[in-house]
Fold this sequence. Notes:
Layout: H1 2-10, H2 15-19, E1 25-28, E2 44-57, E3 64-71, E4 74-80, H3 84-90, E5 96-106, E6 109-113, E7 116-119, H4 122-127, E8 131-134, H5 139-143, H6 148-160, H7 173-179, H8 184-192, H9 197-229, H10 240-249, H11 256-270, E9 276-281, H12 287-300, E10 304-308, H13 312-325, E11 333-336, H14 342-354, E12 359-362, E13 376-382, H15 389-396, E14 405-410, H16 416-422, E15 427-431, E16 442-447, H17 451-463, E17 467-471, H18 479-496, E18 504-507, H19 513-524, E19 530-533, E20 546-551, H20 559-566, E21 577-582, H21 588-599, H22 603-614, H23 639-655, H24 665-677
Parallel strand pairs: 4-6, 9-14, 9-15, 10-12, 10-13, 11-12, 13-14, 16-21, 17-19, 17-20, 18-19, 20-21
Antiparallel strand pairs: 1-8, 2-3, 2-5, 3-4, 5-6, 5-7
Helix pairs in contact: 8-9, 9-23, 10-12, 11-12, 16-23, 21-22
The structure holds adenosine-5'-diphosphate and magnesium ion.
Amino acid sequence: xxxxxxxxxxxxxxxxxxxxxxxxxxxxxxxxxxxxxxxxxxxxxxxxxxxxxxxxxxxxxxxxxxxxxxxxxxxxxxxxxxxxxxxxxxxxxxxxxxxxxxxxxxxxxxxxxxxxxxxxxxxxxxxxxxxxxxxxxxxxxxxxxxxxxxxxxxxxxxxxxxxxxxxxxxxxxxxxxxxxxxxxxxxxxxxxxxxxxxxxxxxxxxxxxxxxxxxxxxxxxxxxxxxxxxxxxxxxxxxxxxxxxxxxxxxxxxxxxxxxxxxxxxxxxxxxxxxxxxxxxxxxxxxxxxxxxxxxxxxxxxxxxxxxxxxxxxxxxxxxxxxxxxxxxxxxxxxxxxxxxxxxxxxxxxxxxxxxxxxxxxxxxxxxxxxxxxxxxxxxxxxxxxxxxxxxxxxxxxxxxxxxxxxxxxxxxxxxxxxxxxxxxxxxxxxxxxxxxxxxxxxxxxxxxxxxxxxxxxxxxxxxxxxxxxxxxxxxxxxxxxxxxxxxxxxxxxxxxxxxxxxxxxxxxxxxxxxxxxxxxxxxxxxxxxxxxxxxxxxxxxxxxxxxxxxxxxxxxxxxxxxxxxxxxxxxxxxxxxxxxxxxxxxxxxxxxxxxxxxxxxxxxxxxxxxxxxxxxxxxxxxxxxxxxxxxxxxxxxxxxxxxxxxxxxxxxxxxxxxxxxxxxxxxxxxxxxxxxxxxxxxxx
Length: 685
Ligand code: ADP
Ligand code: MG
């Protein structure tokens, strides 16, 4: 009966499952808090004090029993809404009580609703010395007698019947000693029933390490195995194309970061193992040129290369800039998207199959079955998170006898520890340096009472010949309202900047593609000075003359989205500005986000902040991976453990790739079982 319930409500099937359903918090009755030290973050606390006042207040639905509890340092309010008269009878003013409950702040003090309340006597003082687990539960469980107290009891009984032998050590002994970890069994006992915070920390620490360590072992095993089995073309030569471009056509000198990344890529391509490399770099860091020079390495070795972008606009942009870079080198660059049809497409496919096209740039159309290369040696994709596993597999099939080398470029920086996990089986390169001479975008936060000042600023920028974006949020759930906002914003701006002196564009996702294009082109050609738009401008718009962006309702945007949007300005030589408009009252989190934006232009710093604020599940590109379902570990807090776990896992596999050494016997057994459970991951690359 209880078994059924546990199975249904918590997917608990075995004692193991039950034991590994860890408490999500603890009731700490080991200490009494001084009232003067309470803060809004105190949460649930235990306080010892004397009841000073007790009275029934209010009428009807608002009727409540209110008391004052005072200790040597201050007072809090106690309040009951139910069972008022019963409770009133139990309590005696002037008596010392122990209360336990959740604090809420109230006027200039704190209040505790429906506290647990007991008089002080030696017996309950002794009993109070506990640190009790609280488990995630459901109404059904609670109603059917498996509430928190029953769960605690069941857990305690179960643990009493088990011994060390039931939890064989799965880490090598030298690690347990090095980190002074408790044994597995101890860790499990202590995570359920710690005697104090220190013991709990130790138990959690070991179990988190275990969790992250086995994940890293697994990811690195997958990576090693792939490298052992998936062969790749050997690009042994650096030849004419590359050297010629480097010496004669490269319009600037590469940054050190670009050089470093090219070296990393070059090393991959020599090995005869298929490259799977992720290239991260902020907007404007110069990924395109790195991509192009990698393509030239392929061409130098007699292969074709392709570059795939998620949208037509982006693909067009790449096509134009790459054609431009190589225009004097006698190379054929082709473009393919859904809009290339008929005779034009036929011709292109012919040239592709004969090898006369060296570089093909395009959209998803590139991976269709009817696109046949003569010999594809390298595939680059831009904006990785928009491509699924299946699409990547389709791309792989296009090379023969080996799959093409793969370089994935993304402008959505992912914090290092997260990258180690989500892309733990890929190689990662980072361009962490912007080309010289860029002026950092100035970001300012303004509220509604500064509106006139902002309008005045816009007028000045336009007078200097610049263009301006005004961005409104638009989300599906409130689309109608958001569009209305946008429309009203557009009208208000049109009154401030009247025709014919000023021209204004409007752009949103609900417009017909041809209208969108028309409006976009007007802005690109500098026929309009202001572009009022939703986030559709986020991807693939490049207007160097647009030097200012005003973001409305900033509090409704996520951090990485704000950063992506801001990347639309700062593309020219002028000083650029980003103005974040928000309401005056802001939640602590919104304030933090806006402050982060004003403080830094660095995408990695912003990604780290985003990870801390929202947790790893919300970072773009992480949702589908399923790899982040940890029991205990939290990537936004446990970055250090991730790094250590990865380093150690790496060293173990370097020294003992098949885990044959006796000290790794237990590790191997556990890891093999773990690998079976997590089979799906090997598909993530
Ligand atoms: P992203 O990483 O966002 O794709 P791009 O490759 O589009 O960046 O580069 C942004 C701009 O910086 C381009 O105009 C490019 O020509 C320029 N650029 C790239 N690398 C350098 C460099 N080393 N020195 C100067 N300008 C550079
Ligand atoms: Mg780019």
